[in-house]
Structure formats: structure tokens, C-alpha cells
Amino acid sequence: MTQSHLQRVTRSDVAREAGTSVAVVSYVINNGPRPVAEATRQRVLQAIEKTGYRPNGIARALASGSTQTYGLVAPDISNPFIASMAHALQREAFADGKVLLLGDAGDNSGRERELINNMLHRQVDGLIYTSVDRHPHIGLIQQSGTPCVMLDRVDPGLNVSVIQVDEQLAAWQATRHLISHGYREIGIICGPREMLNTQDRIRGWQRALEEAALSINPAWIFATNYTRAGGYEATKRMLRGSVPRALFATNELQALGCLRALAEQGLGVPQDVALVCFNATEESAYNVPSLTAVRQPVDKMARAAIDMLKSWDGEVRRVEFDFYLRVGESCGCQGYEVRPEEG
């Protein structure tokens, strides 16, 4: 390959090919500020195509004050629910003419802060953010003046825009569904106890039991990671003691790990242990048995997040979406039918 092919094509190269000035090339690329005769404009466009010129995005960003990018900082992209949200956000950002930069914190708060700094240094036009433990680095973002939308419930005192569902209410509804089947011994596989979302989901589970005058057995609270391995390990621990008749798993991955551990011991779902979960994706519909699960309207939430950034005026907004319980077979219900994604 020759040296000329290794060098970046510049506007000067385009101007030379088109037989015009660099300023005229700039007017064509930027559609102004001065008009260009149509014949000259066509020569410049043909020269751009022939030379393979690509505008310098960084330079254009500095000139326009916009990088045409949004940033997404998420706790763990390997989580199917978070991946489905990222996919929906990417689609909505693209429709808005933006590129979505993805930062995966790997469930590490320190790494989360580094990713936020990296996004801010890249001068993203807006940041969409779900914190690892709901103790977000909001001050860092607000100091930069970058528009930000949180995809989680946070302390109202943080003064940040939020898109969310009521996780405590969702946990209550999932547990109430188990109670409606007549189950009286109901345990919970939850996330790490120090995480705020875990605390919300435990409170919802507790509230449902208390309202039904059912006992809360501390030995049936199995804290673990929000992973398949976590659900598997928690269920193995459960099987070493007394086994509740039903379980609420606080995310889909934990429920899948639970199913594996129960199957290894020859226990059927829902025959021996009924199961419902939170934050499910389409994967729950195709599992055997299909999982009864709380679903969030991911597409609508993604659309709202991008709209917030697009129309940003500095005003704090909090939008709460309705969740829904998609009934499967794991709770004991019958006649389940696989349906397309509901957005």
C-alpha cells in the first residue's frame, strides 16, 4: 500500500479534486453559511465520493457543541434484562440520529465512576445511567452540566431525572400472586442485602406476607448475587434446610439458577416448589416451565429516556411506568401461551 493511501484525506484534497477552494468545500459539507452554485456543489460531492473523504467528527463536534452521542452506563450487560434495555436504548438513539456509547461497570462501583468520567471526557450529549448499588455518582455528572436520566429509583434529594417502576409494589404483586394460589410458606431469593433495589424487593415480599397474615421466616431469605450461579447456590443452601412451598426470585437469572438446582434434586416446578420472578425478558416465556414474571415496558421506557435527553431543559422529571405480571406455568397457572414481546 502506498503512502498516499495511508494518509487521511483532507478537505484540501477534496478542494484540489473539485477545482475549488477549501472554504467552498466547507460550505457544501456544512450546508452553509454561504450558498454554493449547484454545479459547484455537485463537483464537490463527486470529489468527496472519489477521494473517500470523511468529515472529522471531533472537529465538527467542537464547532457545533454536539458530539451526536449519548452514553449508557449499566451495572452488568450480561444480565438479559439490562441487555434488552440497552438494545432498546440503542434503537431509540439511532432513530434520533445519535450513537449510543456503552459502558459496562461489571457490578463494580469504582469502575462505574471511571466509565462516567470517560463518557464526560468524550463530551456525550447526554448520559443514561443505572447505578451498581443505587448510590450513584450524580455530583460528578451534575458538575459537568451533562444531561442525565437515571433508569432506577434513587433518593429524591439527588435532584435527578428518573425513569422507573415501583419495585416494591412489583415484588408485592408477584408475592400476592403466589398467595392467591394458596401457598402459605413463601421464601425469597434476593440480591445482596446492602443494595437498595434488594431492600425494595424484600419490603414488597414482606408486605404481601404481612397483609395475608403469613409468617416471615428469616431462614427463607436467601441473599445472593443477581446471577444464574447466585440463584443456583442460594437454592442449594435452601435445600439443606426446610424448603418453602413457593419462592419469589428477585431477577430472572436467579430464577433460572434455582430451576437447575431444584431439577438436580428431582424437584418439580410448580409441583414441589412454585416460583415467580422479577425483571424478566422473553427468555422466561421460552423456558420449561415458562416463568411467571414481572415485566417492565422496556421499549416505552427507552423511548422516554431518549426523549428526555432530546428535549433537555434542565428541569428534573420523574416518570413512573406501570409494570405487568406475565403469567406462566412456574406458579401453577395453566394454559400459558407464548406471545411476542409487549412494549
UniProtKB/TrEMBL annotation:
Q: Which CDD domains match?
A: HTH_LacI (cd01392), PBP1_LacI_sugar_binding-like (cd06267)
InterPro entries named among the record's database cross-references:
HTH_LacI (IPR000843), LacI/GalR-like_sensor (IPR046335), Lambda_DNA-bd_dom_sf (IPR010982), Peripla_BP_I (IPR028082)
Q: Name one GO molecular function term.
A: transcription cis-regulatory region binding
Alphabetical list of SUPFAM superfamilies matching this protein: lambda repressor-like DNA-binding domains, Periplasmic binding protein-like I
Does the UniProt entry include the keyword Electron transport?
Answer: no
Tell me one Pfam family matched here. Answer: LacI
Q: Give the record's keywords alphabetically.
A: DNA-binding, Transcription, Transcription regulation
Which domain of life, per UniProt?
Answer: Bacteria
Span of domain HTH lacI-type: 9-64
Entry's PANTHER family? HTH-TYPE TRANSCRIPTIONAL REGULATOR GALS, LACI-RELATED TRANSCRIPTIONAL REPRESSOR
What name does the UniProt record give this protein? Catabolite control protein A
